[in-house]
Amino acid sequence: MNASFAAQINSILAAFILLTAFGLLVQRRVFGLLHIFAWQGLLLSISTAIVGYSAGLHHLYISAVLTLSLKVIVLPWILYVLIHRLKIHKEVEDMVNIPTTMLIGIALVIFSYHLTAPIRELSTLVTRSTLAVALATVMLGLLMMITRKKAVTQIIGFLAMENGLFFAATSATYGMPLVIEMGVALDILIAAFIFGIFFFQIRTTFDTLDLKAMEKLKEEE
Amino acid sequence: MINEAYPVFMESLQVIMVLVAAPLLVGWIRMLKCWSQGRTSAGIFQPFRDLSKLFIKETVLAENVSWIFTATPYIVFGATVLAGAIIPILSVDLPLSATADIIALVAIFAIARFFMALAATDIGTAFGGMGASREMMVSSLAEPAVLMSVFTVSLVSSSTSLSHMAHTLTSSPIVLRPSLAFAFLAFVLIAIAETGRIPVDNPSTHLELTMIHEAMILEYSGRHLALIEWSNMMKLFLFASLGIASFFPWGIAGADNIKMLPMALLALALKLALAGIFVVVIETVLAKMRVFRVPEFLGFAFLLATLGMLSHFILE
Known about the structure:
The structure holds two protein chains of two kinds. By secondary structure, chain A is an all-alpha fold. Chain A has one domain (3-215). Chain A has seven helices and no strands. The interface between A and B is medium-sized, with 23 and 21 residues.
């Protein structure tokens, strides 16, 4: 496997990561969201391993395995259990309708391409072209957090953003130092637990997971 | 002498093949569908029998029809045959291919659709108007997406001429291109919508509330109906071969090379048979979706096509 072939595979994977980011935006069902999120993690981990192989950096293998175990297995499983316990089966409610969200998403992709164009000129890494995709994934995750009402889907948006950041680190500088990556992974894991506790708290306080209820500050009315 | 006659021969061969192979493809799909549902099929030649039966039958016209209604079958048929002469199905060396590129091709399909919708409203029945308005809704969303998706291929080959696109793809070394993968996915979704297959429309239903295409041709009979049915079969065939020509042209006969022709025929038959299997699998697995979900479906196709185009710029 030579370098240009690895770069091709990597750009295919980047394209699919972008597709999953859009998939998260348009998916209506909560379990569908979880599946897409797990797929995104899988693609991310394969991409990291390939970058590690083509650049000869072995610590990227460790982060690929870390991504695989955490984002493909553990986090979706935690969220799955949470959704089951909370008995959420309804379709996801969104603030902006889906075609509009898609159009905004396309605009964000163009924006992030434009934003990363100077970096692309300067960088010499084989992964430089995927940086725009990584930034777009971050922005699409943010867009998902903005357009969705329910807490669970916002968390998935947040985790998708983290995926994007991880991908950006891999494509811009061949990954962060391993210590930082492990720290981030631990943070994400802890965050997932804390989110779980929060969900139950929010539900017992407001009887709903709709975060609109939290905007009401007064007791009366 | 051979060299002068070759393109003309190629062109006529292709038109004849489109006319004959389109019912065969439909027959193949119906046969597979019968098998997948555990029914005995009527055979692969049943569409020919249907067509010849319709040609013999008397044509009944409503009292208040205008010339649009009677002219539409011929216009639709003519436009579809013309489209069949442009798409490089067997060989990249087509004389008519130089006269029209992919944009013109989409426009030719649009002419056929426009007259079909006019004829449907011309007759003045409620179903005709309903079918026409739905068809227009679907096509207005599908058209930008199909253009976007084929433009992605144009970007890769830097030409909008279909023959040139197919030629560039076959002659350059195989590179993994995410843009083409996206464009192909988008094209599949649009082809399903444009040719009126499940999950957008059901070609074999006459259930009033769900039909789109069938509602428009409800008033046609006899040879008019035969022409419309035939051009509809050709449309399915042409969309399948347009997809093959733009995304999997390998095996197509090159310019001035008659020896590649048998191989090209074989490759085409194989690819179309696979396309038929694919259609049947989709139609067996999926249910028809609500009409109001169709814009979302086509919006997703547009998104995929746009992503294909963007990833051409970003990743390649």
